[in-house]
Amino acid sequence: MDPLLALSLVLALIVASTALGLLWRARQGRVRAAGGAEVVRATDVGSSVAFGDLATLLQFSTELCARCPGTRRLLGQAADARPGVTHVDIDLTHRADLAARYNILQTPTTLILDGSGRVRARVGGAPHRAEIARQLDALDAPAVPAAENTPFTSPVRSRNVHAQ
């Protein structure tokens, strides 16, 4: 093979793989709105914990997921900071049925559910704190008047639970 052609092929592969890697990285943690047609119940995912009155941050993880512990902490803090919001972590390591049912292609994947269990948003990869807060604000806005949304609200009534 001609050395110039071989070098050109190597450079083309490097450029293509770099472009694909940058595209993949840009899509990680992005919140995608869901139509709200799908309803999830705690019993559907094997959780013994009731979902939140306002919202549920439903995280799908696996044992070998490197980003799942950080996501668990972030979502737990978000739930603990808001009354009526619950964080539930479902381990998919031995639950391929749930991965197929909810189309989980990577971990962590987070579904943001409203108070009735409807899927309002989906996050593939590690979520961004600001995006989670924005989604929870959107769910909270119609239910809580602006005057009640102060730093001096009632004590936190959320739960942070790890379900197996």
Structure notes:
A hairpin with a 4-residue loop joins strand 4 and strand 5. Strands 1-5-4-2-3-6 form a six-stranded mixed sheet, with helices on one face. The protein starts with a helix and ends with a strand. The longest helix is centred in the first third of the chain and has 25 residues. It is of the alpha/beta class and 164 residues long. The chain has one domain: Glutaredoxin.
Q: Which structural class fits the helix and strand makeup?
A: alpha/beta
Task: Work out the strand percent.
Answer: 15-25%
Name the CATH homologous superfamily.
Glutaredoxin
Alpha carbon gyration radius: 19 Å
* Helix fraction bin: 25-40%
| Head-to-tail CA distance between termini | 55 Å
Arithmetic mean pLDDT: 82
Query: What is the top-level CATH class?
Result: Alpha Beta
Low-pLDDT segments: 149-158
Q: What's the structural blueprint in terms of helices and strands?
A:
Elements: H1 3-27, E1 31-33, E2 55-61, H2 68-80, E3 85-91, H3 96-101, E4 109-114, E5 119-124, H4 129-140, E6 159-163
Parallel strand pairs: 2-3, 3-6
Antiparallel strand pairs: 1-5, 2-4, 4-5
